[in-house]
Amino acid sequence: MQQYLDLIRHIKTHGNMKTDRTGTGTQSIFGYQMRFDLSQGFPLVTTKKLHLRSIIHELLWFLSGDTNIRYLKENGVRIWDEWADENGNLGPVYGEQWRSWKTPDGETIDQISNVLNTIRTNPDSRRMLVVAYNPGVVEKMALPPCHSLFQFYVAEGRLSCQLYQRSCDVFLGLPFNIASYALLTHMIAHQADLDVGDFVWSGGDVHIYNDHQQQTDLQLTRQPYPLPSLQIQRKPDSLFDYRFEDFEIVGYEAHPSIKGKVSV
Ligand SMILES: Nc1nc(=O)c2c([nH]1)NC[C@@H]1CN(c3ccc(C(=O)N[C@@H](CCC(=O)O)C(=O)O)cc3)CN21
Ligand SMILES: O=c1ccn([C@H]2C[C@H](O)[C@@H](COP(=O)(O)O)O2)c(=O)[nH]1
Predict the structure, then answer these.
(1) How many CA atoms does the CB half-sphere of 236 hold within 13 Å?
(2) pTM of this prediction exceeds 0.80
(3) Cβ(142) to ligand 1 under 6 A?
(4) pLDDT tens readout for residues 51-82
(5) Does the annotation list 255 as a binding residue?
(6) How far apart are the first and last CA of the chain?
(7) What are the residue boundaries of the structural domains of the chain, listed by start?
(8) Domain spanning 2-250 has what CATH number?
(9) Does the Cβ of 147 fall within 6 Å of ligand 2?
């Protein structure tokens, strides 16, 4: 994950000091891209130990269409706690937009199923997108989607994915976001009988919070390890039937975890 360290160094060198909604303050750049060849390893940050459990459960939760944190809590995942209301609801966030985007005439659109179907039947299509940023309901969401839009691309039997992330917390959010979309690309490729290609990450406001400067400096002193690989143990009949136990990360060697506060 040299790319991750290069991004941190780039922000520390060129970033603008900015105030932000949370009051913490950030050092920030606008517009950045990274490319990960998924056939060369699973892109997990190695300069701090990541909690892959949370990443897998969060993705399965998005894919199930759920927008209440109950499932996450039952599985010991706390990353969305601060944003939920007293009943655990987050409003019409990712799960709802991915699986049941509401149209003005009362229908719902399952964007994920549609995209998988197009990958299988018309892989040269340039319309294989999923949009989470729904301006009509964004005020009802606990947080407007950060990973706002993603697109798939098929060439030479390989499935690639590009994400546009409008806002990115480089220390806490980004390692999760990269791993999550890499995992999603593997799952969709698995279902469509394709190999994996590239994951392209594109960021808008890409920032290091002021209280994450030390933690990211520490990461720059650490030598990254080779990437692990992902093994999927079972091929369920549907994209929506994967279970936590189906995924195994092999050979994940990482430096010790680093704590940091999340700005709410
Ligand atoms: N400021 C901010 N940064 C984010 O990354 C973020 C938000 N807000 N709001 C919504 C979601 C929630 N996400 C989060 C929230 C917390 C962690 C976090 O605390 N991570 C720790 C512990 C991980 C764990 O318990 O599994 C870490 O060390 O990575 C990560 C992602 C990503 N998003
Ligand atoms: O998946 C996610 C979700 C959130 N973030 C970060 C990006 C920002 O630091 C905050 C959101 O604040 P806004 O004022 O709405 O931009 O959360 C992330 O990196 N990844």
Answers:
(1) 12
(2) yes
(3) no
(4) 899 999 999 999 999 999 999 999 999 999 99
(5) no
(6) 27
(7) 2-250
(8) 3.30.572.10
(9) yes
